[in-house]
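Hi there,

I know you've been waiting on this one. I reran it after we fixed the sequence typo, so this is the corrected version. Both the input and the resulting structure follow.
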Amino acid sequence: MSASLPGNRELPESQYDLNTYWGRVRQTTTITDPRTLFTGQHGLEQAKQLLVAYKKGDIKDMTPELWKAKKIVDSTLHPDTGEPVLLPFRMSCFALSNLVVTAGMLTPGLGTTGTILWQIANQSLNVAINYANANKSTPLSTAKIAQSYSLAVGASCSVAVGLNALVPRLKRFSPSARLVLGRLVPFVAVASAGALNVFLMRGEEMRTGIDVFPVRSQSPGGDEGESAQSLGKSRQAATLAVAETAVSRVLNSSPIMVVPPLLLVRLQRTAWLRANPRYVLPVNLGLILGMSFLALPFALAAFPQRQRVRADRLEEEFHGRGGDEGMVVFNRGI
């Protein structure tokens, strides 16, 4: 993000208090704002120039224009590499990218082959999003990426297809109960497979560790010395980062997998939808998209992106090496 820009002066990480959940929700809402997707290369360069001017001291105070520039930079650039995240895999495009594969998976009469192909497409998208937004202090070779991709897609699709196959066997339930379960099981499959996907795609981080840095400030905005020297790579920090990211994926999927299908069951009983069954799929997709936009900031904000822990909670080599109050910070990914 903005930490990679030149200049000795550090930018405040947010205009909100990131030590509170609501503050993180408001911050995450700016990062996931789909309007930032319309910012072209020229707009991104202008935003970067404004932030560089602040970091070099040419601009003294944060203004609404600077906060807007920081929003564009933070939603576009990876915090570790400073390079733009490929547009379909940005969190600001998360709901829209997932809607494409969701539409495919909800297509009537897919059959086993179609279901498997769309599950592969869905889990491939998850792999791309997880990789694009992961901690980048542990680079992966092409062979490792291919291996992680194969494991993640293979295992995730097996879980998803296996759970979906349970629905026809629920014969002891009433027809209405089977209808509700039939709506819910695909989303349960997506949620559990998505969490597994995170662990498998980012497993190398847990094996080799990620960079941790000393905390230099406890300010409400989260200004923690982004340019500090790395204390080394911690496997325990990596495990925590990956686990929290997996949990946030489940928290994001849960309302999406529960609310739209149950609402659709109720809506299908209305006279309008019974008279216009061709609108069932568009209505379903609209419900899913709306809930996706609503749920994403709340799920991502469950844990800070720049996670702080006591150095003494990590491996022994980090004990006593923390910054303020013995704390260290790391990018958990998103």
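Quick highlight: Strands lie at 210-214, 232-234, 306-310, 327-331.

Best,
R. S.
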